[in-house]
Amino acid sequence: MVANIPRIQDWISDHFQERSGKPFGVRLVGKNKVIYLAKPEHFEQVLTKQASNFNKGIDVHVVFSDFMGNGILLVNGDRWKYHRKVLVNLFSARALRDFMTPVVQKNVQALMQILSQASASGDELDIYKLMNKFTFETFTEIGFGRKLGNLKSLDDHPFEVAFDQRTKSVQRDFHIQCGYGSSNAG
């Protein structure tokens, strides 16, 4: 695995293909075992049915707690059960239908308008950047109740820039903490 660090995402994907999507674990010297999952039924087992058997580990908490606090993604045991009980209603079919779906539909309409205008005018679009803006606009409205107006702007919203920078630094720190990279990683 160490030889594959520069292409870790491809290595993980290749490994899943070789194993027909079956979970696998990797243990580096002096580190907790990291388990990789690909299928929804495996995530269900880990996140709900057997959650008490899968501790997130100190590495995860150390790296992510400044960014994510002590919410459901970072806690275990009774604290995890409490957070899950509170959050499960937020993601009910009714919540999806009544709140999330209209937000997504509205942003899809805005996205379609941008794509149609570019098609009609022949203007080039950075699809990667546009899809990031769409995702971030939708995420912030659903998650934080804030409309940034980011999708219709050529400029990146300061919150998007800060969030992206922090996400990249957390990812780098996680790779360092788990032994996948060095402190010089970018």
UniProtKB/TrEMBL annotation:
A GO term for molecular function: oxidoreductase activity, acting on paired donors, with incorporation or reduction of molecular oxygen
Keyword vocabulary terms for this entry: Iron, Metal-binding, Oxidoreductase
Keyword set includes Cell cycle: no
Keyword Repeat attached: no
Pfam family, one: p450
Organism superkingdom: Eukaryota
PANTHER family: CYTOCHROME P450 (PTHR24296)
Family to which the UniProt record says this protein belongs: Belongs to the cytochrome P450 family.
Official protein name in the record: Cytochrome P450 86A2
Organism of this sequence: Phytophthora nicotianae
